[in-house]
Amino acid sequence: MNDIFHSFLARLDETLSEVAQQDEHLDLYQLGGAALIMHYNMQRLTRDFDVVMMRTPLEARAVELFGKGSDAAAALGVYLELVPQGAPPLPQWFNKRSVAVPGPWKVLRLWYPQPPDLAATKLKCYRSQDREDLKFLCDQRLVTAASLRESLESAFFWVLEKDGDPDRERAFANLAKVIDYLEGRSRNI
Hints:
It contains nine helices and five strands, in the order H-E-H-E-H-H-E-H-E-E-H-H-H-H. By secondary structure, the protein is mostly helical. The chain has a three-stranded mixed sheet. It has a two-stranded parallel ribbon with strand order 2-3.
């Protein structure tokens, strides 16, 4: 799977190099399964290369050329998927804590999140794939209860418990399940 992602990134960079302005770069902050596969060695398949939407002209061009349904995505078997910043709640300053990925790219700058920040993005929706990803992060000891709580609290910095926000309530209820798993009180997430 990593070879597919590396081919995808090389082709994306090559294509964007032809249309980018001088000194223009595209920062891609990874989320989702691609980040787990590429940087944390999770063994699974995914066809979407999730990145945080930053709303830049070059990003729009990248999605046009490599997004779902594009010829390039069909040829490479992977497509670029923009994730709005509020869709999974992102911890504040996640981008400052993200790790730069060295690569031969001219235009792309690839970043991946710290494990607690990535895990926090999985707690609101909590679909079966999200639970699988969270279990992997827990089993690999890449997150602790404290680090995960801190990232999730940061993601809901502007919404307090007393505000009664259903997204926050759902995310924190799911956090409790993950903490129970981390601390051995449950065998499931």
